[in-house]
Amino acid sequence: MLRQICLATFEVLALALGVAHAANDSHGSNYWRSLKQADFKLPPQAAVLPLALEATGLLGSTDPVIRDEIAYEALFAWVYRDERLTSADLNQLEVVLARNATYRLGSGESDSLFMRSFSILVLSVLAAKDLKAPFLSDTAFNDLVDLGVRSLREERDLRGYVPQKGWGHATAHGADLLKFLARDPRLTREQQSQIVESIASRLQTAGQVFRWGEDARLAYALAAIAQRPDADSSPFKAWFSAINQAHAGVWAGTLNPAAYVRERAQLNAISELAADLEADTTAGGTQDIRAAIRALRSQTR
Predict the structure, then answer these.
(1) Count of structural domains within the chain
(2) Does 68 map to a domain?
(3) Which of 87, 172, 182, 252 could, after both became Cys, cross-link 135 (CB 3.0–4.6 A)?
């Protein structure tokens, strides 16, 4: 109930700031550029939270300099590098970002991609910060896992790099969030399965072989699960079994291009995962998953 009240409160704040739209540049671009020139270092007495909340609105800008080099870098600096936000501040920021991460989620290609994708990216920074200095409640953590899984499953704008507008990269940014969440001791076996299944679903439904490094980023998230002391190999084995069963149909008779693309997208990510796990000699789930990968690759060559 408290979490729902907080969400409602900060939705009002988000609307007031205009963060569900493109850019709220109330300070003006010159001000933000001056902050960048100063490497986003602020005086000790500066009120950082209002600036951080304002920066969330800039994450939706179609200008890659404003969005990526200013808004994202500012938030990274204040959240993680310089640790200028209190736990209460970070929780306020998380609620606003989580709301913006679902802005027009499920729609086709449009500029709304940037707000969703870069909000998810900053949420990954918050998840990394929480690993270093915990501030998320168990409820907030679980909500973030649900959001990461939902975002990966429901995102329909899969553009990696957009000419003149820069990185879209929703798939990669969603993978980044899941990677850090997967390193958290609170992650349950059920949530492990949800993450593996959401990544498999993304690869199966993308309709393309990713070419902007998304498969590697998805593999990092899978590796974060595989390298856990309590890693559960069963969702990996179930996924690999489904690929193997579909493999014969890809090559039976006339080539089905869509089936080939679906298989190739999955195998590329699994090859990246194999490389990530190659030097891992830990026992348990990692060894089981490595063996399952070797079996799959031998059967699908």
Answers:
(1) 1
(2) yes
(3) 87
